[in-house]
Amino acid sequence: MNKIEAKNVDVYYGAKQALFDINMDIEANKVTALIGPSGCGKSTFLRCLNRMNDVIDICKVSGVVKINDYDINQKDTDVVRLREKVGMIFQKPNPFPKTIYENISYGPEIHGVAQSKSEMDNIVEESLRKAALWEEVKDRIHEPGTGLSGGQQQRLCIARTISIKPEIILMDEPCSALDPIATAQIEELIDELRKEHTIIIVTHSMSQAARVSQNTGFFHLGKLIEVGSTDKIFKNPTQQQTQDYITGRFG
Amino acid sequence: MNKEERLIKRYKAEKRFQFYGKAAIFMALLFLVVFLTKIFSTGYTAFQKTWLVIPVNYNADLLYLDPDKKPTTEDINDADFYEFGIETFITLDPDASEDQIMELKKMFAFTFERELKYYLLDNPDSFGKTVDVKLTASDDLDQVFKGNYPRDIPENRRRASDYQLKIFDKLNEDGRVISEFNASFFTNADSREAELAGIASSFMGSLFSILVCLSIAFPVALLAAVYLEEFAPKNRFTDFIEVNINNLAAVPSIVFGLLGLGVLLAVFGLPRSTPLVGGITLSLMTLPTIIIAARASLKAVPPSIREAALAMGASKMQTTMHHTVPLALPGTLSGTIIGLAQALGETAPLILIGMVAFVNTIPGTPMDPAASLPVQIYIWAESAERGFVEKVSACIMVLLFFLIFMNLGAQLIRHKFEKKWN
Question: Which of B33, B37, B122, B319 is the one with CA 20 to 30 A from B103?
């Protein structure tokens, strides 16, 4: 069964239409990459999946987005519970200006996951281990998270997100602010996380999409041009536009 | 013009520009130095007080007390120290005429009765003996001694007579005129007599006003700012509110005073001349300042922090209370202190709500009548006596220290709690 099904999704920023009739299915426990030139709407689509577009006053979303067969675009959808299930990693690492520990304990705390201090300690350690950060920070988890390097901060954000065990993790160009080594670490991590989470990653780098994803969707000018297995998109695309983008003729 | 000349011209223009900048700073500093020098040179003498040490014979007969019995506290309290004081002053010049006796009396502050009485209460052993007692000199002699009052003008144009000066000089030769730290300036309330006037009432009045102002303005302003910035939809109505808040910040303070007079005193019937009413009036004035500072600080919190919290499944209110507001608090607090410092120096609205009344008691609560420091400056500056001139400057100094203290606090809060994000 598909984890996410998007049907006829249109997004408007005021009078400007940003997404046109997007229909896309996303498989569970796979990495789906969304690629396309800047301004093509891939990030906008990503933000439809956890209703982060609600934050933008002028943004209007229509259509159906089903997660586990439940339409999240209903009026009475509880966005707090939705975002508990659908975590998000942003382009720029955005740890809270608090300690590493507090960064990770925040989610379990507001959702009432941990019953005791020791349970919370376990969650923090487990999350940091899963984000491959534990060994680097275990001696200073009570120091500010903002003191870490860029790559460490991004992994901290990933640890923060997985602390509440979301089913889906959305990643909005998670490596665009990082150096190649940090990028490699994150990519490795993504592959690891796929076992327990469904991952959708927006990326500018086609090589990254090819490396980390099993499925790929290509966006252009607000339309989903083509979607399929990464292998097929990169080696044998059906659309001319996809072909042109993949081979670097535009974008 | 060739390239070389053009370059030289550009360097010269830059040098000139830097010079203008330095000149501007120099001028600002010069004004400040002149201002401070003037205030300090006029005011520092107010922190000294002149005393006359005179021999006092606590003779039982003069006090109409029983010489064979040690007087009780009650006896001393009931005794008449006015006549006793006059008799004591006569000992300074046994040949004094009736008029001269009055002049002798006027060499001392009118509190001499109390001072003589308290000395005996504190030193009951002095009963029946002759001891040296420190009495507050009148403000005229105080000013003469401090050199603020010329002695060489004709007698009919000065307040200290030749006779008083003669006695005073004799006392001075005997080392009986002493100058000490003027503690009563800080512990006394206002007085019509310059030598006794102090700032305790106005200081407490200012303190209470500021506390009332803070406890009203800060929570209201913070809530208003948080709602406007984080929750309110951006539409015509909120734009209208924003414009009006900015207008409110520009309203002359005296208008708020009229509001306080018309609404707080007339409609609600709150007690006149009290820091409570003063504080509420000032809080109206401070409110827009804090709202503007708080909104600016909230705006400065990067949206990425809000997104991070929202994406973690925090509700809007959790996002605001756990992340946005704590990060905006240092800026809000320093804005608040600046607003309070403004309120502290405010005079006009307080005059309108009656805090200009002569108050010679120290207020214990915000419901008691009080003056405030800037109003005290105004009251003293209006007074005719020479002795108030230095008091005005001294009071300004206290106010300035209060302000510096608050601004330092604002800086400290900013540095201590400012969190860095990227």
Answer: B122
Contact between B323 and A94 using a beta-carbon 8 Å cutoff: no
Distance CA A117, CA A123 (A): 10
B312/A83 touch (CB, cutoff 8 Å), yes or no: yes
- Residue A16, phi then psi, degrees to nearest 5: -90, 130
DSSP class of B138: P
Q: Do A97 and B327 touch (CB under 8 A)?
A: yes
Q: Which residues of A touch B306 (CB under 8 A)?
A: 55
Mean pLDDT by 10 residues, chain B (422 residues): 88 95 97 94 90 88 81 84 88 88 89 89 86 90 86 83 89 90 90 88 93 95 94 89 91 91 90 91 94 94 93 93 92 90 91 86 89 92 87 92 89 75 46
3-class SS of residue A69: coil
* Domain coverage including residue B220: 200-417
Q: Quote the CA–CA distance of B177 and B145 in Å, as a whole number.
A: 9
Alpha-carbon distance A71 to A62, whole Å? 11
Distances (CA, A) of B189 to A72, A131, B108, B205, B335: 70, 68, 19, 11, 32
Q: Is A55 on the interface with B (CB under 8 A)?
A: yes
- In whole angstroms, give the CA distance from residue A211 to residue A197: 18
Whether B188 is covered by a domain: the verdict is no
- Give chain B positions within 8 Å (CB) of A157: 308
Burial class (CB in 10 A: 0-12, 13-18, 19+), B30: exposed
Chain B nearest-CA distance from A224, in A, is: 25
B166 and B251 both lie in a single domain: no
ipTM for the predicted complex comes to 0.91
pTM for the full model?
0.83
- Residue-range domain boundaries for chain A: 2-246
Strands A198-202 and A31-35: parallel
Under DSSP, is residue A31 helix (H, G, I), strand (E, B) or coil?
strand
DSSP letters for B145-173: HHT-S-SSS-GGGSSS-HHHHHHHHHHHH
* Distance (Å) from the alpha carbon of A97 to chain B's nearest alpha carbon: 6
Tell me the residue ranges of DSSP E strands in chain A: 2-13, 16-27, 31-35, 59-67, 70-71, 86-89, 168-172, 198-202, 215-220, 223-229
Based on the fold, state whether residues B225 and B115 are members of the same structural domain. Answer: no
